[in-house]
Specification:
globular, aromatic amino acid biosynthesis, 8-stranded parallel barrel, EC 5.3.1.24, tryptophan biosynthesis, TIM Barrel, 10 strands, PRAI_dom, 207 residues, alpha/beta
Length: 207
């Protein structure tokens, strides 16, 4: 069984339709005003409305206020929350929704400890550490830093593209993969051919 696939940072309905048609299991919407992929509630609604049934919608936040998360949840049919900042386990769990916790990986970061701390998360998303950034950088990290004994599912992110995702899937055996910049024509603008090649790469790595 291949890992689940999330295409993150969507801003256009057409990209949502393409992602779903090509086989993505989930799409990500960024609610972080410092990101070039940040979407308004209206733009997010248009993206969600373009999706067929059974494609999960993930809302991504970076150190949000409680009011901001509540605002998004009240306005949109969100399936999973994704937190990319320094949010506490208590904060992440307080919305009574499934959530993912992102960790920016570098030498010295103990993913086993993170998995234990956020043990009620649906998954731990391993991203590349880039100073001053909270994801979407296109940078990779050393996959050897990922231990095999995590207690919650691992979602691999960080610099994945059609060229390296098959190798990543074979080496890391993640439960899911998450891509944003690796399938873009420009920031927030997805490329259907790149998405197709990426999804094929995930499938190839699972064989």
């Amino acid at each position: 069984m291949r890992p689940r696939i999330k295409i993150c940072g969507l801003t256009r309905p057409q990209d949502a339709r393409d992602a779903a048609r090509l086989g993505a299991d989930a799409i990500g919407l960024v609610f972080y005003d410092k990101s070039p992929r940040n979407v308004s509630l209206e733009a997010a609604r248009a993206v969600i409305d373009a999706l067929p049934p059974f494609v999960s919608v993930v809302a991504l936040f970076v150190n949000p206020s409680r009011e901001r998360v509540d605002e998004v949840l009240a306005a949109l049919p969100i399936d999973i929350l994704q937190f990319h900042g320094e949010e506490t386990p208590e904060f992440c769990a307080s919305f009574k929704r499934p959530y993912l916790k992102a960790v920016r990986v570098k030498p010295g970061v103990d993913l086993v400890e993170w998995a234990e701390r956020y043990k009620d998360a649906r998954g731990l998303l391993a991203d590349a550490f880039v100073e001053g950034a909270h994801g979407g950088t296109g940078a990779t990290f050393d996959w050897r830093l990922i231990p095999a004994n995590l207690t919650i599912p691992l979602i691999l992110s960080g610099g994945l593209t059609a060229d390296n995702v098959a190798d990543a899937v074979r080496r890391v055996l993640p439960a899911a993969v998450d891509v944003s910049s690796g399938v873009e024509a420009g920031k927030g603008i997805k490329d259907a051919a790149k998405m197709q090649a990426f999804i094929q790469g995930v499938t190839d790595g699972s064989l």
